[in-house]
C-alpha cells in the first residue's frame, strides 16, 4: 500500500491546497466530460431525421448506438487505457483521451454529412462489412447496413475509447486534487454537469438540426466543436497538473507496470462486489434510458415529444441532487448505505413502470417514479465512484477504475440487446411500436436492482468486517488506514 500522495512542498502551499485552483482544475476536467456526454447522445433525438435523410431504420440506428463500447469491451481498450493512466499519469492520458474523442467524433460527423453520401468511401463501405446476423457477429455491422451508419459506428467506437478513457482519467484527476478534501462533492459536481449535458442534447439537437435547410449533421458538427474545446480544456488542465507535480504533489505511478498488478486488483473480493454492483446498477439505467421514451409512449399513449419532456426530468433531477449527496458523503460518510438505498429506489421505480403505470396510466405516478429514479441515479454514482480510492492502492487506481468500467461496459453492450429480445419475445405478434407491453423488460431491470441490492448488503458487511471505511467520511479513511488494512490482509494471507 502506498503512503499519501501529498509530499512536503518546499515552495509553500501546493496548488491543490488552494480552493480556487483545485476547483478550476475540476471546472476544466468537468467541462471536457460535459462535452463528451453531449456527443454521446447527440443523435438520439434525431432518429426520425436520420431515417428521412440518411436511410437509417431503427435497426441501423440501434447498431450504431450500440457500437460505442465495442472496442472497449472486445479489444480490451479500457484495460489498456487503465494501464496507460497508471503508467503515464493524468496529464498525458487526459490529452490523449481528448484527442481520441475528437478523431472519433470527426469521423462520426463526416459519416452523416451529405459529402460522405456521394464519396468513394461510401461505395466501398456499401460493398464491405456486410457481416451475417449470426451469433458470433458481436460487431455492430450487418449485411445491408447503410454505409453512413457503418462509418458512423466506426467513428463512434473510436470516440467511445476516448470517452471512457477520459472518464477514468477525470476520476483519477479528481482523486489527485481533492483527496482528503471535498472529493465526493467534486465527483458529484462533475457527474451533475455531465447529466446536464444529456438534458441539453434532448432539447438542443432537434432545434439546431431544424434550422433551414434542415440538416441532420449540423448538431454533430457543433458537438465536434465542443469536443475540440474539451481537448483545449484538457490541455489547459495539463499546465495546472504539471505545476502541481513540480510542487511535489505527484500522483503515485505504477512504474514499471506489471500484469500481476491487475491480478492483485482482481483477487480482492471487495473489488468484485463493487464491479458487479456497478454493472448491474448501470445496466438497469443507461440501457433503460434507450427504451424509456418508447415505454412511456406505449403506457401513456404520449407522443415522442411529450414522453421526452417527461423523461427530461430524469437527468436533471439526478444533476440537482448528486452534488448534495457527494457533500453528504464527504461530511458524514454512509457510502455503502447510500448504495443500498439507491438500489431499493431503483427496484421500486422499475416495478412501478412494470405494473402500476400500465394499470393506472397515471401521469402523476409516472412523474413521481421518474423523479425517484433520478434520486436513485444520484445516490449510487455519488457513493460508488468516490468509494473506489478507499479500496484500492493509489498507484493502481487508474487500472481499478478501468477494470470497473470494462465490466460495466460489458453490461452496457449486452443489455440493450437482451432487453430488445425480451421485449419482442414477451410481445408475440406485436408490430406496432406504440403497442408494446413493457412489463417483462421492466421486471428484468428490477431484478438487476435486486441483485445490486444484495451486493450492496454484502459490501456493507465486508466493509464492517475489514474496515475499508466506506461508511466513514472521506477524509477519515486515509492512506494510513488503508495501510493498516493492507497489513492485516497480508497477515491473514
Ligand atoms: N468521472 C466519471 C465517473 C463515472 C461516471 C459514470 N460514467 C460511467 O460509468 C461511464 N463508464 C459510462 C458512460 C456511459 C455513457 N455512454 C456516470 O455515472 O455517468
TrEMBL record:
Predominant location: membrane
> What is this entry's stated membrane topology?
Multi-pass membrane protein
Task: Tell me which Pfam families the record gives.
Answer: MFS_1 (PF07690)
Reactions that this protein is recorded to catalyse = L-lysyl-L-lysine(out) = L-lysyl-L-lysine(in); L-alpha-aminoacyl-L-histidine(out) = L-alpha-aminoacyl-L-histidine(in); L-aspartyl-L-lysine(out) = L-aspartyl-L-lysine(in); L-arginyl-glycine(out) = L-arginyl-glycine(in)
Question: Residue ranges of the Major facilitator superfamily (MFS) profile domain?
Answer: 267-493
Q: Do the record's keywords include Transmembrane?
A: yes
Compartments (UniProt record):
Lysosome membrane
Q: Which UniProt keywords apply?
A: Lysosome, Membrane, Transmembrane, Transmembrane helix, Transport
Q: Does the keyword Cytoplasm apply?
A: no
The membrane spanning regions, by residue number, are 20-40, 60-85, 92-111, 151-171, 192-214, 220-240, 268-288, 308-329, 336-357, 363-388, 400-426, 438-459
According to its UniProt entry, what is the function of this protein? Lysosomal dipeptide uniporter that selectively exports lysine, arginine or histidine-containing dipeptides with a net positive charge from the lysosome lumen into the cytosol. Could play a role in a specific type of protein O-glycosylation indirectly regulating macrophages migration and tissue invasion. Also essential for liver homeostasis.
Q: How the protein assembles, per its UniProt entry?
A: Homodimer. Interacts with lysosomal protein GLMP (via lumenal domain); the interaction starts while both proteins are still in the endoplasmic reticulum and is required for stabilization of MFSD1 in lysosomes but has no direct effect on its targeting to lysosomes or transporter activity.
Question: What family is this protein classified in?
Answer: Belongs to the major facilitator superfamily.
Name assigned to this protein: Lysosomal dipeptide transporter MFSD1
Amino acid at each position: 500500500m502506498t503512503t499519501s500522495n501529498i509530499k512536503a512542498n518546499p515552495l509553500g502551499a501546493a496548488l491543490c491546497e488552494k480552493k480556487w485552483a483545485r476547483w478550476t482544475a475540476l471546472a476544466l476536467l468537468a467541462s471536457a466530460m460535459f462535452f463528451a456526454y453531449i456527443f454521446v447522445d447527440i443523435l438520439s433525438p434525431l432518429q426520425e431525421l436520420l431515417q428521412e435523410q440518411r436511410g437509417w431504420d431503427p435497426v441501423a440506428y440501434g447498431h450504431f448506438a450500440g457500437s460505442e463500447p465495442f472496442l472497449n469491451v472486445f479489444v480490451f481498450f479500457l484495460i489498456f487505457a487503465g494501464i496507460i493512466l497508471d503508467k503515464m499519469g493524468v496529464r498525458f492520458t487526459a490529452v490523449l483521451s481528448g484527442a481520441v474523442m475528437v478523431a472519433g467524433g470527426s469521423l462520426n460527423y463526416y459519416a452523416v454529412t451529405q459529402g460522405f453520401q456521394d464519396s468513394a468511401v461510401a461505395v466501398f463501405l456499401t460493398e464491405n462489412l456486410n457481416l451475417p446476423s449470426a451469433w458470433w457477429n458481436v460487431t455492430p455491422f450487418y449485411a445491408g447496413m447503410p454505409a453512413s451508419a457503418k462509418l458512423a459506428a466506426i467513428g463512434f467506437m473510436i470516440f467511445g475509447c476516448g470517452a471512457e478513457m477520459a472518464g477514468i482519467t477525470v476520476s483519477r484527476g479528481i482523486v489527485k486534487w481533492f483527496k482528503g478534501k471535498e472529493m465526493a462533492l467534486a465527483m458529484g459536481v462533475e457527474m451533475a454537469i455531465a447529466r446536464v449535458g444529456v438534458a441539453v442534447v434532448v432539447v438542443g439537437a432537434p432545434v439546431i438540426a431544424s434550422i433551414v435547410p434542415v440538416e441532420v449533421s449540423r448538431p454533430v458538427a457543433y458537438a465536434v466543436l465542443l469536443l475540440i474545446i474539451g481537448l483545449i480544456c484538457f490541455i489547459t488542465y495539463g499546465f495546472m497538473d504539471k505545476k502541481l507535480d513540480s510542487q511535489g504533489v505527484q500522483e503515485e505511478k505504477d512504474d514499471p507496470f506489471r500484469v500481476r498488478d491487475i491480478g492483485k486488483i482482481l483477487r480482492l473480493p471487495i473489488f468484485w462486489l463493487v464491479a458487479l454492483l456497478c454493472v448491474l446498477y448501470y445496466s438497469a439505467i443507461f440501457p433503460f434510458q434507450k427504451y424509456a421514451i418508447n415505454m412511456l409512449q406505449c403506457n401513456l399513449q404520449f407522443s415522442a415529444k411529450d414522453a421526452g419532456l417527461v423523461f427530461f426530468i430524469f437527468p436533471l433531477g439526478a444533476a440537482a441532487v448528486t452534488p448534495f449527496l457527494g457533500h453528504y458523503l464527504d461530511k458524514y460518510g454512509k457510502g455503502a448505505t447510500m448504495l443500498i438505498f439507491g438500489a431499493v429506489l431503483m427496484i421500486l421505480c422499475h416495478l412501478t413502470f412494470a405494473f402500476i403505470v400500465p394499470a393506472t396510466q397515471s401521469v402523476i405516478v409516472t412523474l413521481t417514479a421518474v423523479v425517484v429514479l433520478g434520486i436513485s441515479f444520484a445516490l449510487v454514482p455519488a457513493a460508488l465512484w468516490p468509494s473506489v480510492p478507499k479500496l484500492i492502492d493509489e498507484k493502481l487506481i487508474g487500472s481499478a477504475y478501468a477494470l470497473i468500467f470494462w465490466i460495466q461496459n460489458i453490461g452496457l453492450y449486452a443489455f440493450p440487446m437482451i432487453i430488445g429480445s425480451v421485449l419482442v419475445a414477451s410481445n408475440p405478434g406485436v408490430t406496432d411500436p406504440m403497442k408494446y407491453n413493457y412489463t417483462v423488460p421492466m421486471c428484468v431491470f428490477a431484478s438487476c436492482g435486486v441483485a445490486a441490492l444484495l451486493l450492496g448488503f454484502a459490501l456493507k458487511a465486508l466493509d464492517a468486517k475489514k474496515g475499508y471505511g466506506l461508511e466513514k467520511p472521506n477524509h477519515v479513511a486515509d492512506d494510513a488506514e488503508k495501510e493498516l488494512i493492507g497489513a492485516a490482509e497480508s497477515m491473514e494471507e
